[in-house]
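Team,

Forwarding the record for the chain on the shared tracking sheet. I've put the sequence and predicted structure together so nobody has to dig through attachments.
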Amino acid sequence: MLIDFHAHVQDDDEGTRADEMVREARRIGIDYIGISEPVTHSRDSLEIVQRQNDLVFRTYERHPDFFIPLVYTHANLGQAALDEVHKGFDRGARGIKMEVATVITDKCVEPIIEEAIARDVALLQHSWHKVTGNYPFETDGVHCAEIGRRYPELKLVMAHISGDNRWGIRAIRDVPSVYTDCSGSIADYGHIEYCVEQLGADRLLWGTDARGADFLYTLAKVRDSHLSDEAKAKVLGLNAAKLLKVV
């Protein structure tokens, strides 16, 4: 099974790009793609959140046998943020996605975390560590580690191995409840093997960050690594199938 856990949608009213994405993904053998909003640095606009989610769920409804939607929200919007999560699950969401509107350790995120725990779904949090400094409300791997310790029952996925692979791995190495995905990161020699060595094959998910990254390039990071066949199977699909409840 091959599941892209972390991708984004950008489309027009006719669904042209979604159709192209499905054709290309199926051509190389992808079974499912987990999708969330096109990347945005907005913080204060509920309208943007709603528009982004509408696009995701329209795409899902166009290809319900292929796309798996994650509902996007800005926790700092308070009750409106939680209401948007509820609407998303009414429309078929199987997880929650957060970007750079709020650092995951902020107090306002707690209701979203508790919702994810109550529903037993994954919370995918954009995470990056920049030597030039993060955006004002951007989550770092150390923040994900803190939340993992505080909420060990949460199925938290630290996206992108936190951008800086070794930093991100070190941050969550001793927090066994936190997963990570390898989307959006460059193919440093040996970094997939190192990630599995340090975290175990059960905690790494394959993701592409499409449409901002190429399917085949990101697939090759895992498929052509020196992992065992068993470990590759977990990373490339079995782990995601458990989190997304793919039967």
